Every structure is written in structure tokens, then in C-alpha cells.
Amino acid sequence: MADVVIAETMEDMDENNDGKISLTEYVGEFADDDDMDNDGEDDKDWIEREKQSFQEEKDKNKDGYLDKEEVAKWIVPSEVNFSLEEAKHLIERADTNKDGVLSYQEVIENHDVFVGSQATDYGRLLHEEL
Q1: Distance, C-alpha 46 to centroid of its chain
Q2: 60-66 long-range CB contacts below 8 Å, 24 or more apart?
Q3: Which residues contact 1 (CB under 8 A, 6 or more apart)?
């Protein structure tokens, strides 16, 4: 799914189809002073913040463009890392014999660890929506 979102973002923003997004393409039509309305000052502030974000945060290799990998780091949420860290934390807390594997008994004995977890809460919320 992430690959599709990245590809669509590249397709939408890469106006000259060179496989990368320039600062001008990133900021887009808002950079054109002729298009500004009564809130022109707000638009200018937004453009400056976005330019700064592009140059200081998103353009990791500082070449003036966003390539596919840089777009991925910008677009794809990092919750995946949080989920992995939460899973590691749960195993570490509940794995009482420290063998790296949770037994049924360890899960039962440490149910309070799982009940308070964001990972299991997400599962509960997902189940309720279905």
C-alpha cells in the first residue's frame, strides 16, 4: 500500500516527469504571487515554512530534489516502527523465562501488560469498527 501512495505522490507532484520533485514542484502553484488572494501574507508565510521544511528536513541528501526514497520518508507514516517497538516491549515484559518466545502461560500470567498496550488497544478499536 505504501508503494502505491508513494507512486501517486510522485506522479502528482513531479510535473516534468524527471523522477524527482523540485522545490518549485513541491511548493506548487502557491509559489506564484499572482495567484494570491487577500490572505497573501498567510500564503507567503506558508510557502516560506514549506521551503524551509523541504530544504532542512525532507531533502535528506541536499541535492535540491526529493527522490522516491525521500518522498517515502515524508509520506509513509512511521507507525510501523512504533508497532514493532511496542511488540518488542510486550515480549520483553511478558517473557519471564527470557527465551525470546511467549508461551501461553506467560501471556496469561502477564495479561496486564497486554491489556494496557497501545497495540492491543488498536486491535480492540479495529474489532469494534468491524
Answers
A1: 21
A2: 64/22, 64/23, 65/20, 65/21, 65/22, 66/20, 66/21, 66/26
A3: none
pLDDT in tens, 35-82: 445 556 667 888 888 899 999 999 999 999 999 999 998 888 665 566
C-alpha angle 3-8-11 in degrees, rounded to nearest 5: 125
Q: What is the rounded distance in angstroms from the CA atom of residue 99 to the CA atom of residue 122? A: 27
Q: How many CA atoms lie within 13 A of 112 on its CB side?
A: 1
Instruction: Say how far apart CA 49 and CA 121 lie, in whole Å.
Output: 36
Alpha-carbon distance of 66 to 88, in angstroms, equals: 32
| Three-state secondary structure readout of 23-66 | HHHHHHHHHCHHHCCCCHHHHHHHHHHHHHHHHHHHCCCCCCEE
* Dist. CA 55–CA 63, nearest whole Å: 9
Q: Which secondary-structure segment (H or E) carries 97?
A: none
